[in-house]
Amino acid sequence: MARLGPWLPDVSDVPPAALAVSGGGDSLALAWLASRWRRGLQAFIVDHGLRPDSAQEAVEAAERLEAMGISTRILTLHTLRAGPGVADRARDARYAALFAACRESGCVDLLLGHQADDQIETIAMRRARGEGFGLSGMAWITETPDVRLVRPLLGVSRAALRETLRHAGVAWVDDPSNDDLRAERVRVRRTLLEGGETLKAELFALGRISGIARAAHEDACATELASMVSLSAGGWATLGHDLPGDAALAALIRCVGAGAYPPSADAVAALRRRGRAGTLAGARLLRARTAAAAGQSWVLAREPAAMDGRIEARDGVVWDRRFVLHCDADMVGLRVGAASMGIDRRARGGVAAALCETLPALWRGEQRVCVPYLGICEEEALVGAEFSFAPNVAAASGGVWGVS
Ligand SMILES: Nc1ncnc2c1ncn2[C@@H]1O[C@H](COP(=O)(O)OP(=O)(O)OP(=O)(O)O)[C@@H](O)[C@H]1O
């Protein structure tokens, strides 16, 4: 059996990972954290040549990186000029330079310092522009023909990264263009700061919800997502909350519970204030059981459907407003009901019990004979039985498009 580790791979074994470092707090924190994670790092600093101090700042950032033991190259751009659209032109030129440098150095991964606040701002900007799917924000990993872009810090707040650097004794430079109100991102950041935590929390929820909607159209694993949202991913903790704010919790309840109308604001506030398990508008709020997340983390699961669908014809049973059943076998006489409780942990294959209760199963009388999503099938004729999302899933997954 192979030995576990080593955790710091030998440079000769793996291609170097590239770091895009601006000299600002986010990407320097990325570099510092990465330097404690692995060897074989190659940092690239792009000097856009647009400000008189930029060359000197690039040299200072390079010194900070070298002090962390990271080999560093400054990529100087000579052709950029100030003027209309300079931010977009600078970004295009920066990525082109970074990609070329990665190719030259044989780097397969390019790590970027985008963090959780950037993500929230991105979602806010896309929402303001009326974009739809973009509401799930930036991807953690983006494959390009040149390199794989990796954003490992998307779950970490700007404040936490600054704190990390302070502890490590690493100085950074705040780019003055981050205060330039002509930039859309800067204006959005200002609005978010003024709007406070509620707005942030709402946008975070919206991002997740639209991710859920997209997944619902992509594959069956979306069942899990459409039926259950984990509130433990560190997102709310990042915002300093145990549970999301009222508006965000209402949006999530609507998504998971698929109610035709949003829950009342008072009911949501009461559920949140109580801080314990409860049911509202077709969704159940439960404490997560996992030991690692104990104390802080919650799950919002769909309330198990009370409805049983008796199969009268060969096909076309819609269950829980979400699923359509398909099967070649004659199933008249069976019924579709919730997979329900009592399925052995091993048979569930890691699927949470709360989610299991919301999955469709085929029942013959009191006997559960098939749970397609879990691969459980007691009758040979039913082996091909399948559920897919009902065509009205966008509506069924709960006002996904209508949350505002
Ligand atoms: N001058 C630079 N040199 C190298 N990398 C940079 C530079 N500027 C930004 N980056 C990389 O891009 C990340 C995001 O930076 P920032 O948010 O300023 O860029 P952006 O213009 O919003 O870019 P994006 O289009 O990628 O969102 C940084 O954390 C860093 O990894």
TrEMBL record:
Subcellular location: Cytoplasm
Major localization listed first in the record, in broad terms: cytoplasm
Documented EC number(s): 6.3.4.19
Keyword Ligase: yes
Any one Pfam family match given in the protein's UniProt record, by short name: ATP_bind_3
Record: residues binding ATP: 22-27
Reaction equations catalysed: cytidine(34) in tRNA(Ile2) + L-lysine + ATP = lysidine(34) in tRNA(Ile2) + AMP + diphosphate + H(+)
Enzyme class: ligase
Keyword entries, A-Z: ATP-binding, Cytoplasm, Ligase, Nucleotide-binding, tRNA processing
The tRNA(Ile)-lysidine/2-thiocytidine synthase N-terminal domain, residue ranges: 18-190
PANTHER family in the cross-refs: TRNA(ILE)-LYSIDINE SYNTHASE-RELATED, TRNA(ILE)-LYSIDINE SYNTHETASE
Free-text domain note: The N-terminal region contains the highly conserved SGGXDS motif, predicted to be a P-loop motif involved in ATP binding.
General function of this protein: Ligates lysine onto the cytidine present at position 34 of the AUA codon-specific tRNA(Ile) that contains the anticodon CAU, in an ATP-dependent manner. Cytidine is converted to lysidine, thus changing the amino acid specificity of the tRNA from methionine to isoleucine.
Assigned protein family: Belongs to the tRNA(Ile)-lysidine synthase family.
Protein name: tRNA(Ile)-lysidine synthase
